[in-house]
Design goal:
With about 160 residues, this protein is mainly alpha-helical. Helices cover about 80% and strands about 0% of the residues. The protein is rod-shaped.
Length: about 160
């Protein structure tokens, strides 16, 4: 009975070894078929090479190619984000420059209006001073301002 038990164990171990070896060759053959560079007829020859099979090498190469592809995609996304950031910065600078120009234009317009107002005010004051001098014969006329509109013609071109 013991000999029979030992014989059964040996047969079971041989059967497992054959199964594992067959599974190994089938897996290797499948990997070789998936390798697009090789025709199907070469796959059996490669599968029978022995323990130094290229299945691990191909798997490792495939994983490395996936990593490289992923790294390339990540690099492309980083470059795209950098381009977008540069574009946003450029647009922001353009907007700031446009706002600055608009403010400067508004200030120039305000200064021109203010200058014109001051000139009109001076003309009006001079006119009122002359009227007052004509009504008061005893007062001394102050000839500091001629009362012309020269300040409007010369000064209204403030830039």
């Amino acid at each position: 009975a013991e000999r029979l038990e030992v014989k059964k164990r040996q047969q079971e171990m041989q059967r497992r070894e054959m199964f594992l070896e067959d599974q190994y060759y089938k897996t290797d053959e499948l990997l070789n078929r998936l390798d697009l560079g090789l025709p199907k007829s070469d796959s059996c020859q490669i599968a029978n090479r022995g323990p130094e099979s290229t299945a691990w090498t191909r798997s490792h190469t495939y994983k490395q190619a996936l990593r490289e592809d992923e790294n390339r995609k990540i690099e492309e996304m980083k470059q795209e984000q950098q381009r977008k950031a540069e574009l946003m910065e450029f647009k922001q600078k353009q907007e700031e420059e446009a706002q600055t120009r608009a403010r400067q234009k508004e200030q120039r317009s305000y200064l021109q209006s203010f200058f014109i107002f001051c000139c009109i005010l001076r003309v009006n004051n001079a006119f009122l001073d002359r009227l007052q001098n004509k009504r008061q014969p005893n007062s001394i006329y102050q000839p500091g301002y001629s009362g012309s509109l020269d300040c409007l013609r010369n000064g209204a071109r403030v830039s």
